[in-house]
Amino acid sequence: MDRFKGTKTAGILGIIGNIFLLIIKSFIGFISHSQAMIADAANSASDIFASLMTYIGSKIASEPKDDTHNMGHGKAEYIFSLFISISMMAISLKLFFDSIISLINGDTFEFSYLLVIVCIVTIIIKLFLFLYTNKLLKNSKNLLLDANRKDHRNDCIVTSFTLVSVLLSLVDIYWFDSIVGIGISIWIFYTGIVIFLESFNVLMDKALGEDDINKILEIINSHNEIIKFNHLNSSPVGYKYLISITIFVDGTLSTFESHEIADKLEDELNELNFVHLAIIHVNPMPIEN
User: Fold this and answer.
1) Closest Cα partner for 14 from 149, 140, 157, 204?
2) What CATH number should be reported for the domain holding residue 41?
3) From 162, 184, 236, 267, which residue has the greatest number of CB atoms within 10 Å?
4) Distance (Å, rounded) from C-alpha 9 to C-alpha 89?
């Protein structure tokens, strides 16, 4: 449960931090007419939604299995990650359109040291949130947490470019402000696609990757009693996988002996950090003299 507790805490911190940043970015962006800062403010609005989805998704995913959800509620992480990705792509398209219009019209904005201060404050807050979520992620494989970590990291980079565009206005270079707005929108859209595909793959029951399969094969091959195996299937259950395998053993073994082999293999596979439950079906195999 610590895994979900950390994720929910990260969601709450993200909501608080991003609400603060949304308020100051929106106020300063609109009074200065900086397209990059307005885009950055919209990005913070998207971040609030993402942090809220992280909190709600983790809360649901942490619920234990019950009579109607025998495998638990782990897939809630990926459903809510899907919501985050769709909102990110929708906002990015609006930002892209507004920034293109601003570039075509040659819009300018009024320089203010408040713009510089807001950028620096944003970078500091987002850097703190990135380091915090990065620390949590080392102890848990969580797509919601990873999405937030990437978002905080991206915001540090994006706001750094916003700061550059603000400073360039001191020498009457305003077009870079719109370019940064376009860049921010493209970055948000790309991140949204990545999160969408990761969530979609799990919800569509994408099988284990090659590295994890090799770990399973290594364990199976360490059992000399197993003559051969087939039907190695995997299905995601939240952030872990349900594994099913059919093994073949010496047909002269007793039922107890053959199932003892299967039970031992199940125990070893269940110790893997990506396995939710391993189910082994054992078949007797005739041995030729």
Assistant:
1) 149
2) 1.20.1510.10
3) 162
4) 25
